[in-house]
Amino acid sequence: MLEWFLDLLLVTALLTTAIATLSSRDLFRAVVVFIAFGLLMAVAWVRLQAPDIALAETAIGAGLTGVLLLDAVSHFRRGGTVAASGRSDAAGGREQ
Asked: What is the pTM (predicted TM-score) of this model?
């Protein structure tokens, strides 16, 4: 009975974080909740007895993607634009 309750709690937390990520107007908050979603998803994979997928979800889903999204939000908040070459205008990547 306790396992069912924990699974139900995990599913509720996953749905709540997914909805909070999609409905958030603040980009930073959305990324932080997305990282929390990735960590909860890793716990769900552990509950499904798939530790290899849980490790991949933690490393890629919550870790790497979260860091890249946080970096993108910081660039967006500073107002830097990205040129076609992939470098920001503020860094001297203006096209000629």
From this structure: 0.77
